[in-house]
User: Fold these one by one.
Assistant:
Number 1:
Amino acid sequence: MNEYTFPILYGVAVGVLTRLYLLRTDYRQYPTYLHGRTIHIALGAIAAGLGTVAVPAIMEKEFAAITFLALAASQFRDVRNMERNTLNELDQYELVPRGKTYIEGIAIVFEGRNYLVIFVSFLSTLFYLVWNVWAALAASAIGMMVARRFMSGSRLKDIADVKYVKPHFEGAGLYVDNIYIMNIGLPARREEILRYGMGFILTPKNFNARTTIANLGQRQAILHDVSTALGIYRDSGTPALVPLAKRDLNDGRVGIFILPQVEDIEKAKAVIENVPVLESAIRMPGERRWKRRGGSGDDA
Amino acid sequence: MTHEKMILAVITINGEAVAGGAPIFVCRTKEEMERIAANLEAILDGIAHELSDGLLVIVKH
């Protein structure tokens, strides 16, 4: 026991708590299993330890120890690889796959959260050692809130309006509003599709959103989330019953066609609205600074 | 081996309209055509698309 024992214990505990707080099993169904959670809690504990011991190391002028932090950070990059590989393997056996963009998004989040844990642990221990346990408590609370804010990105409802439209056929062509989805040859399949199918139109709120929802990975994420939340009227060997999202080339609207097992329009709408906007799908052409001839580089 | 984005079979009630490399099933009635297409859809794991009235093709996507 020395003067660092309690601050270190405190920092590690806060770090692990932060990881637990950020690790939720929700409708995305991941990580569902005990073992998946164990991996992340264990890594969270290691991250918390790293963040914590950095502070006493600095105070004892053990600067060599700090360089190990950089080394450790590379370990957390492996978290991303691990998640990516696992999810890619699982994706092959999904009725409606997540898609690579969604998987990459999830993997990034898992890596990022470990860094947030390091950050919170570091702050907590620092405040404990410099001031006292009360300052540390305040720092932990603020740190957790910041981590929480970092954790939640924007949702689809922030960038697009969602409207229900009943799908219809024109000949063999399936349409959602005026957006062509696919060609269905068999009348029996058409009946099934009209019975179970739902259509939604996503209208982008601005030009940036238009490019984001056009991203194929973002569209696949929407289809996957809806199919997970509401079930899917589909099996292997029924390729005609496939949820699809197609784009209106004229105005950038996206037509979503889904086959949910729960026929609740309001629920489906809510699920679509709450699909996360994938980090890797976000495009901001509007952020470009235009250098006009003779101008001084105003925003477009 | 899977053939994707290829016409795997043609089912028609109008034998003169089609010719070529894919297996062609010429049927007498529309009902027969639809029945065969439904079976082929399940067997080939493809989708039956309608090109015109009385002419279906199976394509795997």
Note: DSSP finds ten helices and seven strands in chain A.
Number 2:
Amino acid sequence: MSEAEMVHARERGHEPELKHHFDDPDQQLDSSTLGMWVFLLTEVMFFGGMFAGYTIYRNTYPDAFASTSRFMNLAIGSINTAVLIFSSFTMVLAVRSAQLGRKKALIGFLVITLFLGLVFLGLKGVEYHEKWVDHHIPGPGFRYEEPQYFHQAQILFFLYFAMTGLHALHMVVGVGLLVTLIAMAARNRFSAHWFTPIEMVGLYWHFVDIVWIFLFPLLYLIGRT
Amino acid sequence: MTHRVVSVKTYAAVFITLLILTGTTVGVAQINLGEYNFVVALTIAVIKGTLVAMFFMDVRRATSLTKLFVCAGLFWLAILLVFVLSDYLTRSWLPLPRWGPGA
């Protein structure tokens, strides 16, 4: 917020955090929340298209699908699920610290969340490398252990990379947002009265967590037995 | 801010429940239940997603308008999936005449 804006706000007798087209801070926060949800719902539709594509191919080629499930790294997938859930927990504690105006705790929880996000991305990288070594990346170098499923398995590995890749891209954006929040918090940009960006990034982070909660069983668990 | 701050205990309880559900879904996936593997895995995913949305994203205390938007979004997703599946899953129900040579 600029100096001019603060002076403007004080002259009109409201807190500098409250934009004067809102009645009160609650209404301001409610409209931010609603706007963020509208964005997240466009994301639901975005991922929804991929989930629909996945469902169609799973139904069209159930045997090939079952055969690819066995090549997914369940250990890394499970650890990553736990890591992401843990990061959602620390994110919600960061929002809570902001509500209570505890700056040190806020920065601490944001840093832990950031770290967990990076752990997730690192493990994802290990998994992608494994697929590269095994020649499981669709394209000219693709090889498959069960030759009768050569073409169908490529479709399913393509879906695996498209879905987890888009999810990982969202994680990268989330990491960038967290770095921004940590920098803002360190510069005392938040107070117990105004911490809207932390709540909004929190919503985004949890949404990305929910996407993974659905990706994990669909890609790693179903068809293993 | 009139928003009541939620206790760490509540968040921790949700967190632990999510971890237990993750363990359960991984465990059940090792047992062959046929078609029910899919049902169990997705049911657990829906429960986990709902917990995250309700407690971590605070939908349970959101304004009615936000709740309406969330429901509308899920409804639209349902339209996408149900209409697509009503086509693909029912294609084999009716024998259609084959096209092309040798029909």
Note: The radius of gyration of chain B is 21 Å.
